Amino acid sequence: DAGVTQSPTHLIKTRGQQVTLRCSPKSGHDTVSWYQQALGQGPQFIFQYYEEEERQRGNFPDRFSGHQFPNYSSELNVNALLLGDSALYLCASNTGGGTDTQYFGPGTRLTVL
Amino acid sequence: RKEVEQDPGPFNVPEGATVAFNCTYSNSASQSFFWYRQDCRKEPKLLMSVYSSGNEDGRFTAQLNRASQYISLLIRDSKLSDSATYLCVVNRPSTNAGKSTFGDGTTLTVKP
Questions:
Q1: Cα–Cα dist A46/A76, whole Å
Q2: Does residue B96 sit at the A interface (CB-CB below 8 Å)?
Q3: Of B84, B9, B79, B82, which is closest to residue B40 (Cα–Cα)?
Q4: Cis before residue B8, ω within 30 degrees of 0?
Q5: Is residue A36 a contact partner of residue A87, using CB atoms and an 8 Å limit?
Q6: CB of B49 less than 8 A from some CB of A
Q7: Min CA distance, B99 vs chain A (Å)?
Q8: Which of A12, A34, A109, B65 could cross-link to A46 by cystine, CB 3.0-4.6 Å?
Q9: Is B102's CB within 8 Å of A33's CB?
Q10: What is the Cβ-side half-sphere exposure of residue A108, based on CA atoms within 13 angstroms?
Q11: Cα angle vertex B111, ends B110, B112, to 5°?
Q12: Residue B98 and residue A43: Cβ atoms within 8 Å?
């Protein structure tokens, strides 16, 4: 039973660039949520995708966008990168719109120079 | 004020000690509650759900007090392997989807 997978594991970008992060949910899950975790803080909710639509969004600017594909996998895109975007980006999956227990992927560590 | 607040610690305890973590939440519409464990530079992993009646899983006991909007986690007979950051998570359903709000975590170090 495959768990949540994310790619890449690490990424280094410079200010102003754009980045795309990818996530495949746990087998049987149809809902994907993205979180940003800065050093020393808890994960902060970015948005959630269900049925290929963004269902809820946290307090993140429009530079953060996403997509969910018919196979339930998801992408997180961040445009015009800032130094403050450096963080661990976590993907979590669950079922039915997201009120159940979430399972997290290993994360993508993004460094913006 | 943050929606979910935890004492950041760190808690430094000897092996065998009993340690308790607290978490408060501000939104009374919150409906489900969890404790996650996060090891250094790893992803959070579910430790246990928290129910109003309280629940126990081996050395771990979780309690929920809805009236006081307070969650607790008790670890008995601490092991070296319990060293980690413990995250309190509160879910608040919206019209379309659940939303998880995490605390910033409490760091536990268990020493020999």
A1: 9
A2: yes
A3: B84
A4: no
A5: yes
A6: yes
A7: 7
A8: A34
A9: no
A10: 27
A11: 130
A12: no
Which residues on chain A place their C-beta less than 8 Å from a C-beta of chain B? 31, 33, 35, 40-45, 48, 50, 55-56, 58, 88, 90, 92, 97-107
Residues of chain B with C-beta less than 8 angstroms from the C-beta of A56 = 94, 96-97, 99
| Residues across chain A | 113
Of how many residues is chain B composed?
112
Note the pLDDT tens digit of each residue in A73-93: 999 999 999 999 999 999 999
Read off the pLDDT of residues A32-57 as tens digits, 9 standing for 90 and up.
Answer: 999 999 998 999 999 999 989 998 89
CB contact B87 to A (< 8 Å): yes
| Residues 6+ positions from A45 with CB-CB distance below 8 Å | A33, A34, A35, A56, A58, B99, B100, B101, B102
Q: Tell me the sheet residues that pair with A110.
A: A11, A87
C-alpha atoms less than 13 angstroms from C-alpha of B54 in its C-beta half-sphere: 8
A96 three-class SS: coil
| Confidence band of B96 (pLDDT split at 50, 70, 90) | very low
